[in-house]
Structures
1.
Amino acid sequence: MDIKHAKDYLYWLYYQYLLITCCYVLEPWEQSMFHTIFITVFAMVVYTAYVFIPIHIHLALEFFSQLLGDQRESTVAIMK
Amino acid sequence: SGLKRGHTPFNEHFEQAPMYVAVFTYVGFGVGTIFGYLRDFMRACGLERCTFAAEREEQKDFVPLYQDFENFYTRNLYMRIRDNWNRPICSVPGPQFDLMERITDDFNWTFRFTGRTIKDVINMGSYNYLGFAETDANALKTVADVLQNYGTGVCSTRQEMGNLDKHLELENLVARFLDVEAAMVFGMGFATNSMNIPSLVGKGCLILSDELNHTSLVLGARLSGATIRIFKHNNMQSLEKLLRDAIAYGQPRSRRAWKKILILVEGIYSMEGSIVRLPEIVALKKRYKAYLYLDEAHSIGAVGPTGRGVVEYFGMDPEDVDVLMGTFTKSFGAAGGYIAGKKELVDFLRTHSHSAIYATSMCPPIAEQIIRSMKCAMGLDGTTQGLQRVRQLRENTRYFRRRLHEMGFIIYGNDDSPVVPLLIYMPGKIGAFARRMLDKNIGVVVVGFPATPIAESRARFCVSAAHTREMLDTVLNALDELGDFLQLKYSRHARSSRPELYDETGFELED
């Protein structure tokens, strides 16, 4: 029963995707073409996110911590 | 708004959908356009067979006969979902009707009939407001008698030999129904507008026309040769500004005063379901000395305590409106139109209107159908059936609109208008909605781009007095289910959790 619910839910999601992108009105070969292009673009976006976002976040955190770290050191020096 | 009539306020809603809906709508149209260009390219290259109109080989060097690019939308988007329009009906368009089943093998370019008939489809698209589209032999007895006596064709124009005593009887009855001096009837509703406006105004006159006026009014205004200026839909500030500018500045180059200023409005606008703000327009017209032409195609018989249109709905005097126009197609189950007003106006039209001089007059059985339905609506046949129908229509309208609001759909228009547009927005959902409703045995009319703004496609329901509560409940349950399945419930207003009230009699029965 759960498998059936899951399958129905997935079909419903696929149907919403067809309706929103207006693929519902296209002929089958046009739909295949659109699916191919869409999945390719989506895969490229996911790959780019996977490769670049962690590195950029790490660099950004390093930059800001360095900035804050320098400030703290300079005030301590004046106080002495 | 502060517009009040009697005790009930003037309630109109035109809710805007959330932003993501507009984004998805444009995305959908973008995808459709890209594939449209692709298919056009393939047809031009010869990779695909052309199935629409094209010139013969010998004429390819001439000036083109068919305008290809203007039909881009028709060829590439409308064709794909074309099976939802022009469906052939094979019974009377009452509250239920029979459809001929047809299927397509080549994606809607051609259709073929399977031979089966889909029976008892609930009719939510026909303009049958008072339910006079019926086949009951008792009700149609006088019509059958007239058919026996007069035959079907008139074979002449009104000016020559086509002026029957039935027409005179009908005109007197229409004048009595609307409480005016005189009326004239024509064989076709569209032609009533497009052929009579040119005889009322001409060059040197000014026409102020509402943004969303029907094609017949626009065509009549253009044919007349007068200057046309458009004011925003039902917007009195816009109309007043145009009136003041017209009177202050006069005609464009000569600065002379305009010969006549005519305001063209409709009683109920059929794409929006909104009702005209008649008291304010009449006040403006009296102040700036303009004339008012009111097209009551959808409102005659459908609004007002006794069904006499928007003039009665607002409790106003019919003498305030200079030209009252309407059609018999919607509430009286017949065909044709009328123009009513002062006797001088109607006598002028009898000799000067194109439709009166050249068009064939109304055929006698149709005239008798209008006579019998109008007598029924007025109560002259001795029963209260007419008043019951008007009240049933009002109850059905209020119930249907209230339930749709509660379910969370976006509905346009006035609470009292029997035309209910339900917004769908996305082009992909138009075809899906109409097909799935037909699978559930309910016939609906969906409207898209050229008739509505591009991002606001809708389904238009026409409530009828002949619909029973069970039929409306069936339709509402189907809409509820389909609304969840297709995600059409865009409204952001709080939903009422009140239980349904079946006996809604109460304050609206005052006259």
2.
Amino acid sequence: MAMAALRREGRRLLLSPVSYNSPVAARSAILSDELGPMGARSVSTQAVRNRMKSVKNIQKITKAMKMVAASKLRAVQVRTENSRGIWQPFTALLGDNPSVDVKKNVIVAITSDKGLCGGINSTSVKVSKALYKLTSGPEKETKYVVLGEKGKVQLVRDSKNSIEMNITELQKNPLNYTQVSVLADDILKNMEYDALRIIYNKFQSVVSFLPTVSTILSPETVEKESEAGGKLGSLDFYEIEGGDTKAEVLQNLAEFQFSCVLFNAVLENACSELGARMSAMDSSSRNAGEMLDRLTLTYNRTRQASITTELIEIISGASALTG
Amino acid sequence: MASMAAAVPFWRAAGMTYITYSNICASLVRGCLKEPYRSEAAAREKVHFAVSKWANGKPEKSSIRSDSHAE
């Protein structure tokens, strides 16, 4: 009973902003609860001390996680920046058409498998859902391919009938192009699409991640769009060597483009995940530190109050004897 | 070359996509390397992920693609 009341008191002290007007009232409240039915007095300090120990452990763990994420980030960041050059020729050749209007859309949402990485997975899922709404309509069909556990968990809540494939355990081995290209191959073989939209968090810097959509058109759509002119329309100016026809080349290009863009997207998302985890663990350590400070204050106050009470009792007892 | 106006290259006729074709070529090139570089390159070829297709809002059993080369 006393313990429960004390815990409530303690929590109220911890949750409220540190205000030095109320400690007197709070202290007397703790004191009155502190004297349990037997007059036992050490209950409160023990509870606070336990809490302090667990908060300190949590702080150590989150600090360690931040260090791990920082060291992994350094390596992946180099690879990500190098991989940006792999899709640039495609955009130079074929342009970027995010607003293309096609019948069959496939949304590839890239999320992480592990948690504790801040809000990046939620933003990816939010963008996916918005894109789904944008691309749905009469005679149109939109499907999801979800990479990563976290995205699946969020999307399964309200869009589970539109999920076509789900891929997990992607980061068991360090990311490499072969793995991503096998994955791209799997997706291409199993999905019918006119346009593929890949959603990922682009890594701008350690603290800023931009949700991005990359669009890849199927060869048939490219044909259709080239009639509208623009970059795709000027494809006919190119001379094709070898024995391939333009349709052949476009088919190869579309597949290769998907593989390259997916590789870059997966790397960028991994980078963003590590950066987000770093900042999440950093703010968590900071919060744990503040919590520890407040708990230390409470602990000292309680300890001093109990010492004062004992002194008062002894002195009053002694004066009662002599006087 | 002495090929007829082949409508389709041999690998596409066999059911491969361009990605599969280039992966096979890449692993052949990796196999031509000499020893210290060969094992480094082999590490870049590892594939592992778990795929599960969904039907009617329910996932079917997931299958793990874990081979060292796409085939």
